[in-house]
Amino acid sequence: MAAARHRHGASSFSAARRPLRDTAARLTAVSLPAMREPIPRRALVLLVLLLTLIWGTNWPLLALAVREISVWSFRAVGVTLAGVTLLAVARARGQSLRVPREYRLSIVAASCFYLVYWNIASTYAAILIPSGQAAILGFTMPLWSALISWLVLGERFSGRMLAGLLFGAAAVLLLMVPGLRDYAQAPLGFALGVSAGLGWAIGTLILKQRSVPVPATVLTGWQLLITAVPISAGALWFGDGRWFMPSWQTLVIVGYIALVPMAIGNAAWFAIVGMLPVNVAGLSSIMVPMVAMVAGAIVHAEPLGPMQWAAMACCGVSLALVLLRPSGLR
Question: What is the pTM of this model?
Answer without folding.
Answer: 0.73
